[in-house]
Amino acid sequence: MPLVDSAGREVQVAIEVHTPCAPRHLPPCPWQLPDVRRAPPDGLVGGGGDFEPSTIVAEYLAGIFPWPHPEEEYLWFSPDPRAVLPLDGLVIPQRLGRTVRSGRFRVTIDAAFEAVMRGCTDRPGEGTWITPALIRGYTALQQLGWAHSVEVWNSRDELAGGLYGVCVGAMFGAESMFHRETDASKVALVALVQHARRIGIELIDIQVLTPHTERLGGVSIPRAEYLRRLGRALNRRVEWRTDHEPGA
Fold it and tell me: How far, in Å, CA of 172 to CA of 168, rounded?
């Protein structure tokens, strides 16, 4: 079924996919990972390690994600509850649907990964948890085919917004998003869900629910339920790059 807005009108994003390669083999993670089922509700499972590609992917496979804090950079979390965005639950307001259909923005995937990550650090008055080491680790992951970005460009070919995350199996872990123009990050999210549905992603992890993501359809589920869904998603492999994206 196609995505529709709150007025029942179809919403389809034209997407240019620039993914460089399928996920490449990674060496084993050198660290022993904690049992997330024993983590406290705030989700802190431990500290230390590194942001090497094999470490980040191993943590995602275990239901863990990095969340640097000012007092320590290498902190890893698996909160209870966990926030997800159901593939059939994205809320697209009528105005956002009109924005997509207007063609005001051009949308790409994996065309400017590092620029998107750096855009996510630019939040005046809010600060950022995205450190230089994290940028290096995730940029390396993208070059190896594991991490992905959605870019939203304005009519002057300037980056207006976007999001990034990691894909393991049929799970996409959405890390962060940003906008420099109204609705740009929301257009990126619509594009992500459209692409995820097309290639067979089963689980979109948004980690911690915020008022913003809740308005867009995000929900919280118990950590045990998240781990069950993650296990099922990891049993499948998806091809992130498609030969043709509808509307492109």
Answer: 7
The pTM score is: 0.95
For residue 244, is it within any domain?
no
On whether both 107 and 206 belong to a single domain, the answer is: yes
| CA dihedral over 58, 198, 183, 160, signed as positive or negative | positive
- pLDDT, tens digit (0-9, with 9 covering 90-100), for 163-178: 999 999 999 999 999 9
- φ/ψ (deg, to 5) at 221: -130, 155
**Which residues, other chains included, contact 166 with Cβ-Cβ below 8 Å and sequence gap of 6+?**
56, 57, 60, 138, 141, 146, 147, 148, 172, 173, 175
Segment 54-102, tens digit of pLDDT = 999 999 999 999 999 988 999 999 999 999 999 999 999 999 999 999 9
Edge-to-edge order in the sheet of strand 44-47: 44-47, 75-77, 65-66
CA-CA distances (angstroms) from residue 236 to 64, 68, 70, 129, 190?
Answer: 19, 30, 37, 31, 23
Residue 15 lies in domain: 3-24+82-233
Same domain, 19 and 62: no
